[in-house]
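Interim report, section 4.2 (structural modelling).
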Amino acid sequence: MIHAYEVVIGLEVHAQLLTRTKMFCGCSTAFGAPPNTQTCPVCQGMPGTLPVINRRAIEFGIRTALAINCTVNADNRFARKHYYYPDMPKNYQISQYEEPLAEHGHLDLEVGGAARRIGIQRLHLEEDVGKLIHEGNLETAQSSQVDFNRAGVPLMEIVSMPDMRTSDEAAAYLKSLRAIVVYLGVCDGNMEEGSMRCDANISLRRRGATEYGTKVEIKNMNSFKNVQHALEYEITRQARALDSGQRIVQETRLWDPDRGHTVSMRSKEFAHDYRYFPEPDLPPLDVEPAWIEAVRSSLPELPAARRQRFMNVYALNVHDAEVATQSRGLADYFETAAKASANPKTIANWVLNELLRLVPGDDDKAIAACPLTPVKLAGLITLIEDGTISGKMAKDVFETMYRSGEDARTIVSREGLAQVADAGELGVVVDQVLAQHAKVVKDWRNGKKAALGFLVGQVMKATAGKASPAVVNSLLTDKLPKV
Amino acid sequence: MPTSLTIHELGARFRCGLVRPTEAVRAYLDRVVALEPKVKAYLTVTAKAALEQAAAADARFESGTPRGPLDGIPLAIKDVLCTRGVRTTSGSKILESFVPPYDATVVARLRSAGAVILGKLNMDEFAMGSSTENSAYFTTRNPWDLARVPGGSSGGSAAAVAADLAAAALGTDTGGSIRQPAAFCGTVGLKPTYGRVSRYGLIAFASSLDQVGPFAKDVEDAALMLQVIAGHDPMDSTSATVAVPDYGAGLGQGVEGLRVGIPAEYFIDGLDPEVEAAVRAAIETLRELGAKTESVSLPHTEYGLAAYYVIAPAEASSNLARYDGVKYGLRVPGARDLIDMYSRTRGAGFGAEVKRRVMLGTYALSAGYYDAYYGKAQKVRTLVQRDFQQAFERVDVLVAPTTPGVAFKMGEREDPLQMYLNDVFTIPVNLAGLPGLSIPAGFTQTGLPIGLQIIGRPFDEATILRTAKAHEAATPWHGKKPELAP
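Predicted structure of the assembly:
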């Protein structure tokens, strides 16, 4: 029985930093270039080459560390982590081990209405590896090629404490962390493309037990959904194993999203001895307090604070505030529109329902590329509120605006979409409709109040939908008793 | 044109038009052709490129725009330093076909100073050894006795300078690899302070100990070479930003009042009596020149060798991991799978001493052994450093033998431990990151050179060069040449 166990989850998140150049050389980090065109002797690990630390990457690390409440270590240094693999040019990775950039942080979450604090053990920087391209399947490939474009791209690893108890908590932690790094502009947060990756450590123990159970590491989960599904699968697998008296093997398992299960990759006996030792090519990195303070003072408002402010200032509900603050670009968009409008709640509805339906993503790049500016959106809402156009028409206008970037008033006047609200003009139409539908008027008089709706519909039809429903209503209510 | 000329002598002839760089380069290349079969100092001779570089230097002198003291000077480079477009093997089969697409910073600096590069010099594989017998290609001979080794690992550099096969050369020193062969071949060899000279493009053996330095025919030449290669390099984060002084300026100021320390621990059982006598005579010479000598103690000297043989192999096991057959150099074909390719390539590509040190180092860094070996060795290293710091509170330089003995016969030392003992006086200087040099201090009865080691404070190469210069001016040793009839 699953309920007999407490689930213990810790996450290791790798985030590719958005620096222009690599961690230890001047090569570009841009994604998608032809293989091995963004390499140099340093990131190819050629004999005699030496690493030089990219200070921008350190700054990005400090920025993130401060946002997740870590202590930045004044003395920190890089270490070599050894294992042989053809995608790693030196057969060691320059990483951090005993003296990471930052430690002892936490992240506050709200999961299912309850507040949760997840500890952060450490944050450190390292270099990414290259990419192997096999000719066919790995098992049967006759040849494999290496692309070192990615080798040396700065990676930030954030290791949580084993503080999560459900897959929902793990997903919430990951989403919150993603929002933070995206906000800080240090990572694009794209899990599908691998610029943010997540490994999980998960174990089960009997409720009330103080010792942790044997943990299993799960890799290859490249979306929030995959993380949640993989963890749920693993919880069930481990619970069943424990129920039937089996022991959990300490191992690394791969999530197979197509088959929806995890498979064993390597057990502890085959675990690597990484033979860490301090990187002799890099002197210890001295992070002066002044540097940390300068970074602290340049931190933007973070998602949690902004969410709260959106609830207080713009009266958004929790859900809307949450969605609106997923990315900095989207939150900025909403806030600019809200400030230009008298009705922020309506703005929120349009941004979160209509805009997000059209833009290809909620990341800063997609929002920035959106031709419909927030001020123009506010203009559209004004036209609805002053009765110039109906809400239904507004949706068509909105789509035209999104495609052309024009403002709402231009489109409305060009396409003659403005509502007819003139009582004299509409009165003539109303009179015609009443004359044409004597039977319906009779029904109304006999107490069939629904007949009014039919008559409104007829007026709208006669005006090709341009009549102001409010004016039509009041004219009908006024004229009906007099027929 | 005599190839026995020093850099400063040859440079003077270039400047007054007596000799042109192409003439000098041709003379050296001719001598290489004549003597290489005996000495075997070069792994690669780049005659064509050297003559092109020399022609460019000719033009600069003709147009009155020479670049400085090294312009047109024929030099050679230890094959551990990367040379753009010229094969660089590090003395290993695994890099037999490796042609770097870049110059080491020191090579680039020599080139922009106008120096002409004659070729690449033999060495022990990956700079691991004291005799060049660990070269994957051949053993270089000692020009003073062709049956003997030139020392190592920069044996090719020492032999080339001693045999006038280059006006000067670059070597590297991780545990004595410049000073020991300089002593064995009777040349000047300088290991600068760790961080004084860029390591970019130096194929790493032990990153925290490796340092590039010159071999020269006299002290003034060594100073000229250091002047060009020293200084901060943004490509090497361990290179120091300390300002580079004018090494020539104070060279002739003498040693009057200089406090010279004699470390008691360097005069031990096993020290060749002839070496001891020569070193004591050198100390006496310095005293006569006005230096104040006193005995000092470096109590942790005896642990230096052990600490070194943990730290250096540990770093080497990591630095050499990249030679796997995937990217460059040797790949042994016919492998069943990836691991098999690694083992075949490394099995065939590395020699016995390299394998021994990779295994030692891998062991020392292994989980469960790290603290007992690597961690402990680092503590010893700190103690050795402290010994020197304390000594340098009382004295300005230290003088000692460079090696316990003189050049030995090829094949004589088969026991690796016997070989390691060669470096007992040079290793502590690397552990402490200090500058040290070896200069000729006499000869044995059988005519083999003896080296005097002078050790200085960090970044105080100027004082050890000045001390060496004073000794050189007062003694006849540096003028002696081996007899090498073609």
